[in-house]
Specification:
CATH class of one domain: Mainly Beta
Shape: elongated
Radius of gyration: 40 Å
Number of helices: 4
CATH topology of one domain: OB fold (Dihydrolipoamide Acetyltransferase, E2P)
Number of strands: 7
CATH architecture of one domain: Beta Barrel
Structural class: alpha+beta
Order of helices and strands: HHEEEHEEEEH
Strand content: 25-35%
Strand order of the largest sheet: 1-2-3-6-5
Largest sheet: 5 strands, mixed, barrel
CATH superfamily of one domain: Nucleic acid-binding proteins
Length: 204
């Protein structure tokens, strides 16, 4: 073999090289339409509206405090709140098939009016008041910031009502320690009154 003279590639190696180059060219040709279609706008069900606002139709575990100070973002979404039933159950409308109840945020003074069916309202065993903890309910439904059906008031139309805890009464218990300060004051007063009369009698 002479140095500097290029020898032709063996036939198998040349064939393999040809097939590899052809495969690369075919891959590049098929990749071009895919890239072109990627830049085309989607049609039909695949269309995406980039101007669409976020969907707030499913909001769960919202607090009563948030709803009591809600803005337009909370208008007509599905929300879920937990609170104590207070006040009383009031019949809604002339049909009598629905009731109004009031849910109070536990540990807070925030409240919300809830519109529910008689069946759901029957789950309430106790209404909260002084000396009584009302039934704790979890209510899921549609919150209306300005309800068109109920004179524009903010309310929650219940769809599902679950009892978290039954109501509980707290009767007042006699606590003798609470009377100790008063008893001490009375005793000290009587002693001072006795000393005053004793000193007065000595001066006569």
């Amino acid at each position: 073999m002479r140095w500097g003279t290029r020898q032709p590639l063996p036939l198998p190696i040349a064939f393999v090289s040809f097939v590899a180059v052809l495969a690369v060219l075919l891959a590049a040709v098929f990749a071009l339409p895919a890239a072109a279609h990627a830049d085309e706008p989607a049609e039909g069900d695949n269309a995406v509206n980039t101007q669409q606002l976020p969907d707030s139709s499913f909001i769960y575990d919202t607090s009563i405090v948030d709803l009591s100070g809600a803005d337009a973002y909370y208008d007509n979404p599905t929300v879920q709140v937990t609170g104590e039933v207070i006040g009383d159950s009031i019949r809604a409308g002339v049909s009598g098939r629905h009731r109004w109840i009031t849910l109070s945020s536990q540990g807070d003074s925030a409240t919300i009016s809830v519109y529910m069916s008689n069946e759901s309202a029957s789950k309430i065993d106790t209404f909260g008041e002084y000396g009584t903890t009302g039934t704790i309910l979890q209510v899921r439904g549609t919150f209306h910031l300005v309800c068109a059906d109920h004179e524009g008031q903010s309310d929650l139309h219940a769809e599902a009502v679950t009892v978290i805890a039954p109501g509980e009464r707290h009767p007042d218990e006699f606590d003798f320690n609470a009377f100790v300060p008063g008893i001490v004051v009375v005793v000290v007063g009587l002693v001072m009154l006795g000393v005053f009369y004793w000193l007065r009698e000595r001066q006569r």
